[in-house]
Write a structure and sequence with these properties.
- 81% of the residues lie in helices and 0% in strands.
- By secondary structure, the protein is mostly helical.
- The longest helix has 55 residues.
Length: 159
């Protein structure tokens, strides 16, 4: 059985964010699989853990850029959540690099944090972000329509 199965509950309906969340779940499962194997490889655990920390950091940047681009009012609070997780994940990675083992308790923390963050904290930004994205799309359609109209007028004048 998969440690952290991807479910519809984790989907937000934003393709890029959902893809990144799915990758975070996959990395969490890869870490679980390695830790649970009959002969866990410390090198492989380190690779997966480092990949998880790096990917998470990059994902947070993507979200935060979206927040800034669309003036999300809760950006500071959301970023504080990201910063808190980043500190804990970096602490886990540093302790691992210093020779400590990654425990299943640490993995349970990763799983619980991801589920809570995606299902509660990230879901909270959906209404604001969807509204901003719809407004942006409408503006782009208007601009495209104006360009096509101007090309049509220019073609008529040239004829």
């Amino acid at each position: 059985m998969t440690f952290m199965p991807w479910t519809a509950q984790l989907e937000l309906g934003l393709p890029l964010i959902d893809q990144q969340h799915r990758q975070l779940v996959n990395l969490t499962n890869a870490l679980h699989d390695e830790l649970s194997s009959s002969a866990p490889s410390r090198a492989r655990i380190g690779e997966v853990l480092e990949g998880l920390v790096d990917y998470t950091h990059n994902h947070f940047i993507v979200e935060e850029v979206l927040f800034e681009e669309h003036s999300y009012s809760e950006t500071a609070a959301h970023k504080a959540e990201h910063d808190g997780f980043t500190r804990r994940a970096m602490d886990l990675l540093m302790r691992f690099d210093e020779g400590q083992e990654v425990t299943l308790e640490a993995l349970d923390f990763l799983k619980a944090w991801l589920i809570h963050h995606i299902c509660k904290v990230d879901r909270a930004y959906l209404p604001a972000l969807r509204a901003a994205l719809q407004a942006q799309s409408a503006r782009q359609e208007q601009q495209q329509s104006r360009r096509e109209e101007a090309r049509g007028e220019a073609a008529l004048q040239a004829a």
